Amino acid sequence: MVRWLTSSLQRKLSVVVTASMIVPLVALGLFAFLFASRITEEKTKLSGMDTLKQVEANLRYMLQDAENLSIFLIGERDIQQYLSRDEDHEADRLDIVGRMTNLAASKKYIANIAIYPGRFDAALSTATWYEPDGGSLFSPSLPSGNADKRWTGVYPVRNYSGIQNVITLIRPIRSIHNYRPIGWLSISLNENAISKGWPAFGLGRGEGSLELIGNTGEVLSSMDKSRLGLHVSDLEPGLITRIQKGHSGTTTYGEEERKRTVLYYPEELTGWTLVGMVPYEQYRSENSYIIILTAIAVALSALISGGLVWFTVRRVTGPLIVLTRHLSRVDPKRPLPLFRAESDDEIGKLGESYNLLGAHIESLKEEIIRGEARKKEADLRVLQAQINPHFLYNTLSSIHWIALMSKENRIADMVEGLSDFLRISLNKGQDYCPVAQEIAHIRHYVRVQSIRFPDQFVLHYIVDPALEQRMMLKLLLQPLVENAMIHGIQQAGNQGTITIMIQKDSAVERMNILVLDDGAGMELEQLEQLRASIIPADESNMLPQGSHSQGKQLGQSLSDGGYGLRNVNERLFLHYGTDALLEIHSKKGGGTRISFSIPILEESP
């Protein structure tokens, strides 16, 4: 894995950059999850406290209404007069009960209003309650002496419709004349009416619970009726100590599955405390939703980031890969491939430097080739300079006149042809000559050879007239014709034909030159050896090991014709490049075909 990673700059950059982006994304996602979880809990607490405030306002309204109603009743004149008597008056009692019944009926949360006279035994009540065992009328336990008002705890009562739980306000009725106790008033609130609207508040998204805790820790009202009348310490050990009496706030209670957030809020009139409980399971469900959203957001961000990283790394490393491919496939015989820079940044400048380097290398190669060509041509000029042209021409001219005077016409003709042949060969030191001059040079050569080898060969010329004045490297055809004559026609042992064809290839602006004979030809093995032996020195360095030594061994056994072909091939390579090298085809008994192609030149380069 490490090796695979380190072997590619693209892979390393992709992994490093992706990791550097994904790690902060994951950290950010984790932070967002923790922060969102904390906000969810705080939001639940704030919402829960608002709920407790609304519940407390409704409860305070009921309690305050009960207080106001009790004050109204204990000061009512008829009630004062009725309780001040020493015995019951049925008409007054029924009248008072009727009015209390009307008051109780107007308040749905009031379960009962009752008056207990202090001087005689006749309870006035708006509801008929019985003892739980079905006995006499039920009455709450009244305080003794001069006790002040108080609220009882929650207790069950029974009437014709069943059992209900109530909380009762009990306060003494005192005479307005001497302030002496003359009876007791009780107003009972229905616990169901108190807690009826609590589920609608949806504490903790409906998962929480609400309870009203009395001053002694007793559960006065609850959404869970099985907890009514029980002490909080028995139900939730240690919870009562965490609730600050008379203050609002939140705390955490329980562990693991029973862990809950506890919210508490005091009721001002009675000192009771409203307690709300929200299970932590709700947070977990909400946090699960948050973590799924966070994971999806992080995954999408990572995917998008990975795609952007891949795209960016490809944009950066793509040109480098192209440059690497160009450099790994360098062909010494060809120029460096051109790199197309598509930007002006560092990669683009690197590509421009690569192109400049390729152009510089190509310029150096051309300069070296020109230098080698100049060196070889200089060597040829040294050899030519060793011959005194004037002396040679004068001598040949003298021999020509002596032959004419001696009526040796064949000798005279041969000497004249040789003189013209040498004059064209030297060409005043020029490397290039017109095609017509090269053909004339061949004619003089054939003129000499036809005297030496009479009736042994016939030469045909097929030359495009449009090419006669175009320039070409001199002395290219004579070695080819000589090779065809000596190694082709003479080896066959009968009269043969040599054809020289020079045609124009308009598609590529080159002239195609062909020397064809119908002589003895060569075996395939001999042909391959000849092809290997005439390869130029610069080209032979690129041959596989063994081919070079094979060509060298054959070269030691070649005749002058083989050396002539090699010389022509090397001059073509030096002056025209690899596209101009000789192509040799031969078949035993079927003759030999030698061809090459050179550019069409208007004048000497």
From TrEMBL:
Its chief place of residence is membrane
**Protein's membrane topology:** Multi-pass membrane protein
Task: Name the PANTHER family for this protein.
Answer: SENSOR HISTIDINE KINASE YPDA
GO annotations of cellular component type? plasma membrane
Q: Kindly list the residue ranges recorded as spanning the membrane.
A: 13-36, 289-311
- Keyword set for this entry? Cell membrane, Kinase, Membrane, Phosphoprotein, Transferase, Transmembrane, Transmembrane helix
Gene3D superfamilies referenced in this protein's UniProt entry, alphabetically: 6.10.340.10, Histidine kinase-like ATPase, C-terminal domain
Indicate whether Glycosyltransferase appears among the record's keywords: no
The lineage's top-level taxon is Bacteria
Q: Which residues form the HAMP domain?
A: 314-366
What is the species of this protein?
Answer: Paenibacillus polysaccharolyticus
- Compartments (UniProt record): Cell membrane
User: What is the name of this protein?
Assistant: Two-component system, sensor histidine kinase YesM
